[in-house]
Amino acid sequence: MKILVLNCGSSSLKYQLFDMKGEVVLAKGLVERIGIGGSLVKHTKGESSTVHKPDIQDHSQAIKIVLDLLTGPETGVLSDLGEITAVGHRVVHGGEKNAKSVLITSDVIKSIEECVPLAPLHNPANLMGIYAMQKMLPGVPNVAAFDTAFHQTMPREAYVYGIPFEYYERDRVRRYSFHGTSHDFVSARAAEILGKSIESLKIVTCHLGNGSSLAAVDRGRSVDASMGMGTSCGVLMGTRCGDVDASVLLHIMELGSSASELSDILHKKSGLLGVSGVSSDLRDVEKAAEDGSERAKLACDILYRSVKKYIAAYAAVMGGIDAIVFTAGIGENSDLTRKSVISGLEFMGVKLDDSKNGGLRGKEAIISADDSKVKVLVVPTNEELLIARDTQRLAK
Ligand code: AMP
Q: Which of 364, 389, 386 is nearest to 377 (CA)?
């Protein structure tokens, strides 16, 4: 079975083609700057990559180019598009109706359309990918894997905000949280690495990247997660603010910012970038802190502290904790972040082994001391593989 996984952003498209026999990636790539001029396609087949610069106006055209690359004489890995058994789509928002991955039908499309107001940048792009595949590969099943689905197991007290209840009932204002595929993948993988059943474990998963969220995964089910109705709350991120008191937002508006300016401030000008004034990239901020920048050091400290607080909070929510899992760009690569976050959590039975924590780059590892009651792991995330697996299962 060959499965194509698509992740359509507002002006980008990531793709991976899997041969599910052995779960091998046959080809993958990234299309950037769709519809905004200067389009760029990076296509990788095995070890070799090629870069193409066609003019791409929309997602439909981008997908056509991807399909041509997958079957082309030099770049191709398929002799015929008929070899593609099914297509898996990452869909950001599935609302309350979609609690797991589903085969795409007209009802599912309607439910994704209904969630456009909740994810105005992402869901329309995801839909464009679905429409284009339906047109270009008629008869091939399409599957949607939702970023929100894994968190649909949260209890009401975790997702209803303390505001008048009609906003939930009427307007669906609630916590949804995101990165669900990643939290699902790394928690399940952590259980495998520990040789334990996921049903026996209480895990806090820390997806720390440019966007970050934590989840409390109690026996395989998400029972709380740090992002909210949108993607700006929780821990400090690259350019997003993390938790901020509502009064701060009202005050900024009273100072003269419009709603869209405020949104820009919270999503694009805050986080590591906003506090440090240096960069949204943790590598730059850690380097600036090392070189003596007070604000860069402060930005790092806010990040470490916010992650630490969520870990302890989620241990409390689950009545204990067996494992902490770090993943995504920062979680997988920044040993300083892992060390700073864990430092101070010893009271909970967590003990890091510094010699195991250092020098990991995108590798799975248990980094806690052998006698640590709570295991600490690094598990590289692989959302595309989980989407491919769900797609294979549902397409069968
Ligand atoms: P992601 O969104 O998952 O690609 O993660 C991007 C983030 O990971 C950026 O803030 C990067 O600075 C960070 N990152 C990647 N590699 C490292 C590293 N070696 N040390 C610190 N941060 C890193």
A: 364
> Ligand 1 centroid vs 231 CA: distance in angstroms?
18
pLDDT tens sequence across 155-200: 999 999 999 999 999 999 999 999 999 999 999 999 999 999 999 9
| Sequence letter at residue 299 | A
37 CA distance to ligand 1 centroid (A)?
A: 27
Q: Where in the chain is the domain with CATH 3.30.420.40?
A: 2-146, 196-378
Residue from 306, 302, 348 nearest 323 by CA? 348
Q: Which residues line ligand 1 (CB under 6 A)?
A: 209-210, 238, 281-283, 286, 328-330, 333-334
Distance 352 CA to ligand 1 centre (A): 21
Protein residue with least CA distance to atom 20, ligand 1: 334
pLDDT at 359: 84
- CATH topology assigned to domain 196-378: Nucleotidyltransferase; domain 5 (3.30.420)
What is the CATH number that goes with domain 2-146?
3.30.420.40
* 243-294 tens-digit pLDDT: 999 999 999 999 999 999 999 999 999 999 999 999 999 999 999 999 999 9
Give me the sheet containing 221-225, strands edge to edge.
221-225, 212-218, 202-208, 323-327, 375-378, 365-366
State which ligand 1 atom lies nearest to the alpha carbon of 207. 3
